[in-house]
Every structure is written in structure tokens, then in C-alpha cells.
User: Fold this.
Amino acid sequence: MEIVDGDVEAQIHRVFMNLQAVCEAAGGSLNDILKLNIFLTDMVNFPAVNTIMAEYFTEPYPARAAVGVAALPRGAQVEMDAILGL
Assistant:
């Protein structure tokens, strides 16, 4: 329940690592994600999400929706949720 200090790239990596841990705990992997919802406080960071996402996923990538929001809890710059299909 702590936010990673540092830039948005560090937060994006942490979000993907957290999603990976949840997927593995459910008996799957990131590649089992069917839909990914991305919430950003600044849409200028969406290209960074795409670049970093390629480090964690293989093609075909899951369906995605990116939403610009005014604020996120605890001052986070990025938050994601996912639908896992096993």
C-alpha cells in the first residue's frame, strides 16, 4: 500500500510487477489478461506505458483502455486494473 517514489516510469514498472504477482497467485500470467484499464493523471505518459508494457507482455497484447483522470489515491501517477481469463 505504498507508492513507489520517483518518476512515472518507476510507478508503471511497479504496477506491472504487482499485476504479474496477482496473475501468478491466480494461477496465470500477464499473458492471460484479456482487458487492461489504465488510469493516468497525465496522458502525456501513455507512450511510456506502451514502451514499458512491451517488457512485460508478448503479442498479441490485451485489449486496453486509457483514461485521463484528475487525481489518483496517494498521489499516484498511474493505476491499472485487469480482467484475467484463465
Q: What stands out?
A: The mean pLDDT is 95. Residues 9 and 48 are 7 Å apart (CA to CA). The chain is about 35% helix and 25% strand. Residues 8-84 form a domain with the 60s Ribosomal Protein L30; Chain: A; fold (CATH 3.30.1330.40).
